[in-house]
Model the fold of this input.
Amino acid sequence: MITADGPVYLICELGCNHLGNLDDALRLIDVAVEAGADAVKFQKRNPKEAVPEDQWHLPKETPFGTLPYIEYRHRMEFGLEQYRQIDEHCKRRGLDWFASAWDIDSVNFLEQFDLPYQKVPSACLTDHELLRHMASKGRPVILSTGMSTPVEIDDAVRALLYAPTYIAHCTSTYPCPSNEINLRSMDKLWEREVAKGVVGYSGHEEGIIPTLGAVALGARFVERHITLDRTMWGSDQKASLDPPMLKELVSGIREMEQALGDGIKRVYDSELPQMEKLRKVGRKVPA
Done:
C-alpha cells in the first residue's frame, strides 16, 4: 500500500501495451511480479463516452489494419470476463491491480472488483463530474497531474471532496525529454494539505534515472509503463520499461531507499578503522 513512511510503492502501467490481448496482459502481470513491483494498472474506457465524437471516424493505423478510431478503441478494451481473469491472476500472484477510469461508466464497472485505489488519468483531471463520482465510492484516489496548472490541481482536489488523495507529479509527453520532467515541482504538491506528506511520480521518460531522482526527492509511489518489447507497435512503447529495465528500476529504488537512511548523522562502526588510521586529532568517537 502507499504510505508516508513505508517502502516506495511501485505501479506498473500496462496502458495499451497489451494491444487488447489478454494473454499478453497476463504475461505483463508476471513480468511485474518477477521484478518485485507492487501493482499493475490498466486503463478502462467506455469508448463512446471517453472519445470525442468528432474523432470517432478518423482513420487510425493499427496492428489490425486501418480502422476508424472508435473501433480501434473498442478493440483495446477488456470486458468483464477478461477482467475477472486478470483479477484472479493478480490474486494468485499476490499483486495489487487497479485501473484509470476515463468515464462514469468505467468507474461503475471497476466497482465490481475490490480494488485498492481509483486512478484519475491526467486527461480527466478537469472532469469534475467524474471526480465527484469517484469520490462517492469511498476509495483512496491517485490523481495524476500531467497537462495541469496549479489552479486546476486545486480545483480537482476540491472536486474529489477531499477524499483520501495521493497526488502524482507527471508530464504527459511520450517519451518525455529530461528538461520537461521538472522534478522540483513536486515540492509544490507537498504544500497541499490533502497530500498529507504523500506525493508520487508518474514518469514517461526513457530510462530510469529521473524515476530514481523522484525517489531521492521523496516520492512515496512511482508509476511507470511496462512492455514485453519496446519495439512493439504503440505510442507508449518508447516511454516504457522492458523486463530487464524494470528489474533494474526496482533494484535501484530499493538501493536508493537504503542510501537515503534516516537522516540522523552518525559515525558508523565501519568508519572506526579509518578514523584510527587517518585522523591525528580526535581519533575516538565522543561519548
